[in-house]
Amino acid sequence: MKNTKQQLVLDQIDKKLVLFQSLQIVVVPLKGWVHTVRTALKMSLRQLGNRMHFSAQNIKQIEEREANGTISINSLREVANALDMQLVYGFVSKHESLEQMIEKRARELATEIVMRTHNTMTLEDQQNSKERIEKAIVQKTNEIKSEMPKYLWD
């Protein structure tokens, strides 16, 4: 059952995630941030390499790994430090809140469960009205949200 502690955790994380909401519209440069910032500063591969104690070829590989999405967070953090910058890492939610995400998933599950029962009853010629089905979905959604069962994200 979702208790006050769980609700508090959700609320606290939502407050942190909302700070990233405006970043949804940020477009990552085609060649990546490392290349973009480095060239904007008119810093050569060799110069950044010297700051990191790497060769120019290593920096080129870092830029390529960032551009194709295979770079590690630690590597990005090291580059940021060498550029006298700070790496900021976080998630931008596709929903207004974690609560909304839970609501959406709970409704999906509730619909599956209710419709399975509805199909069985239809086969037995005992089908329910659309209103009754919707009411059952709402009730099951609320139950799932309240209990937050382990199968919620299966």
UniProtKB/TrEMBL annotation:
Residue ranges of domain HTH cro/C1-type in the record: 34-91
Protein name: Mobile mystery protein A
Lineage: Bacteria, Pseudomonadati, Bacteroidota, Flavobacteriia, Flavobacteriales
Gene3D superfamilies (UniProt xref): lambda repressor-like DNA-binding domains
Organism, as annotated: Flavobacterium zubiriense
Extent of the signal sequence: none
